[in-house]
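Before relying on records like the one below, remember that each one covers exactly one chain. Contacts with other chains, cofactors or solvent are not represented anywhere in the record.
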Amino acid sequence: MKAFHEVRSYDSDFMVWHSSYQDISFLAHWHQEIEFIFVRSGSAHLSINEHNFTAHKGDLVVIDTGDFHYSDSSKMKNVLDFIIFDTSILSSLYNHSHFASPLVSASELKRYGMEKDVLALFADVSRELKEKESYYKEIVTARLRDFWYLLKRKRPQSCQDMTSENKRMSLLYDMQQLLSYMDEHYADNITLTFAAEKMNFSESHFSKVFKKLIGINFVTYLNMVRVEQAAARLKNTSSRVTDVALNCGFNNVRTFNRVFKEITGYTPSQFLKLTDPDSYNLTYYKRKSSDQEFVENDSLTLIKNET
């Protein structure tokens, strides 16, 4: 697999973004915005919170604010369209949609009479954001609102009782806080025991929950965070490899070299010789922190199949 970065940035305080990709997967992440993924062709395997499924041509995937999501589709061919937008587009008092399932199949869209609506939504948003003619913000906002509330009218809601739903949302929030902590304190001695205690779980239960939500185990994720930071330091500073390793949470250079190669495909010395050091194999999603009001250079890591 080859990795590449897609950088999502908003031109102004109008926080709506659209793009299309071929043959991709993406690593586990979450964000405050709502995300639509439309499968133009092929198939994609996705995981959103506790839901794991394969989406096919014509299907729509709805990822609500705060939902953990990733795609493990490295052996699949696909063309996916993305729309990501801030919840304020819908309402300043937005609450989670609580859809029973994030997957809206092509057959369901047909039954709802929304086949043409989803195609028109992606076409209109793409065109308006590209051309930016007069009142494009108002038109995009209207398109998104109309589609969203029509979908809300048709789509079944979760039948979980309020207590169960509150526990679920609390779990997602606690996991978000843990990942944010790992992003900021990656150089510290963050152990499985420490992470489990922060979530008030046993180590075994925490490991199961983490793998289910994030798609990879805790140690692998932490190493990916550390390697991402190490790669940036190697690329942008003149620090010695030993110093970089120790400052990014690795106990010794031998472990750092091994983990760095496992994740990027290169040893640190090979990485330094790359003409394009952004071309390493894997990286993690730099999530938008909850206190940011404006997203700029919010990078979404996508993994493209080799052709």
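The beta strands are 2-8, 16-22, 24-29, 34-48, 51-56, 60-63, 69-71, 78-85, 103-104, 298-304.
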